[in-house]
């Protein structure tokens, strides 16, 4: 096109420009690849380099929760074997509830009397409801064979651990902005169903009430309590976690050797191998950014 | 033009009229101009509603609406081999010499290109969009693109940014990727006969009101501009999920009399909306080329746009004001544009656009690409399989398997219905008899004769 030539009749006639207008650039084919090709590409701009120690310390909260779940399973096992009586289970419930509240009282800064009152009220409703419903739970899944119950419970506990939100909490923290995610809700439900399945294998209604209350207390509030501890002081969190791990390992050792080895292996895997692995595969991180990326808005969209 | 030089081209895409958008426009105008150059063009797309079968469009453009229903966003269900028989029949019937696929989202395009390669045809692919590398959707899309482009003869992108993107996504050598921009039908987008008064400044926005088009930026920018300039009015054309937000904004700042919301604007009416304004505002967050800017510039509007994707390449610096996709920067850009308005002459701008962009130029440049594609040496299956093998440890083997099955199915089809059993279509020259009906301007082409 003749018109095109006049359009680009600047002194730099023979210089290629990154423009789309004005037809084919004189002297250059359409497949011309300039030196400036991919000049604007940025690689690995937002990659965070992690160090080993930090990743290891962060992974402690995972193993902490693993141990909590292991302890719950231990209590289930001992109850099923009738090692624990219903009285001792109720005692355990009360002491857990008391200590949980105590820790919350100590660690949350803005813990008013009204909040405590509303908590106590809610929990008393909850306990009453559970007590009324425990005969139903006792017989709800009785007709299912025990083998199916064990298999289902085991898989539900694994699902619970797999989907659990280890960095946050499963029930809404007083004053927290974000809500629990969808997967963490599924995880919580899996754990509730698992404890209800176990309840049908117990000898009496009081047992059922005590064990369901215990499991729900732990699954609902243990993440909240550990989160509060972690927020209050990271050192305390570490001490608490290691103490918990030690206690769990000892208890599991007394129950079964093989399970002990398995738990130890899992803990080592989570705390040592996984962080190492993560650091290693960081090298392969390859992130490409450039002008073709969708622009990000710099303000929040209030729907 | 001798018969030997005449190409018989099959355009394939899921996106074609009656659907509307950049790709549809591109295919239509490119086909029309190729027909004008004496080549034969056939378009293949999926059925729209009850529009199924063969249709003729302006200038004797033959369109096959194959009886496959779209299932998601106007895409056909990916079946890999489901379209092989019909693609083969069309290729043989129409004695096609080259297949040209459009748009990376289009499953029909990917399938047709795969079958065409299996049958030994040369294929050209045009990428009309940009894609990131970060999210799951993009990663899978890029793998599909890599599969299609692994064996493509030549590829075309609509802007240099889009070329960079495509080369990175597909691993194609950059020499095989051509940059041929879109164009605009300047005859359809003429400025208003007389100049608008400059007492009141009208800013026009025409886009789908969705997140990707930056509707949320508009929500921030419009009240701020209205606050700064008492004589500015906005006209917003387009519909979409974000329309509610814009209307909320209008109510919240009591701008009902200064912001007109037109709703969806049919393409035929776009010009009449454009010529009522002084400034065109584009707030897209990602854009490979943006035809809307061309249409506005052709109507003599000064454009204010976000600096994203291929937009900075589209117009010379004195016809566009660019801003970062950030409300305060965009308000600054609009200020700059308002200051610059007195120097803008819509008629002069229109004449300039006529020189800068033309579909005939696009068609000529595309023919060069076709010639190159036809000069590529043919390859047998084994040579091509080795190319697929390099696409990845697992993906490579999977791609090879897909191609081998396609090859076997093709041979099976040939046994079942040999090529010579398929009746070729007779040559009917429709360009002459329909010449009067051609709705858009061919002044340039006629003046060349």
UniProtKB/TrEMBL annotation, chain A:
One of its GO terms (cellular component) is membrane. The keyword Nucleotidyltransferase does not apply. Keywords: GPI-anchor biosynthesis, Membrane, Transmembrane, Transmembrane helix. Pfam families: GPI2. Pathway: Glycolipid biosynthesis; glycosylphosphatidylinositol-anchor biosynthesis. One of its GO terms (biological process) is GPI anchor biosynthetic process. The chain crosses the membrane at residues 59-78, 90-108, 115-137, 149-169, 181-200, 206-229, 236-255, 261-279. It is found in: Membrane. It is a multi-pass membrane protein. InterPro entries: Plno_GlcNAc_GPI2. It comes from the Eukaryota. The keyword Metal-binding does not apply. Belongs to the PIGC family. This is Phosphatidylinositol N-acetylglucosaminyltransferase subunit C. It comes from Ilex paraguariensis (yerba mate).
From TrEMBL, chain B:
InterPro entries: Glyco_trans_1, PIG-A/GPI3, PIGA_GPI_anchor_biosynthesis. It comes from the Eukaryota. Transmembrane segments: none annotated. Keywords: Glycosyltransferase, GPI-anchor biosynthesis, Transferase. Signal peptide: none annotated. It holds the Pfam family PIGA. GO terms for biological process: GPI anchor biosynthetic process. One of its GO terms (cellular component) is membrane. Residues 46-135 form the PIGA GPI anchor biosynthesis domain. Pathway: Glycolipid biosynthesis; glycosylphosphatidylinositol-anchor biosynthesis. Its EC number is 2.4.1.198. Residues 193-339 form the Glycosyl transferase family domain. GO terms for molecular function: phosphatidylinositol N-acetylglucosaminyltransferase activity. This is phosphatidylinositol N-acetylglucosaminyltransferase. It comes from Ilex paraguariensis (yerba mate).
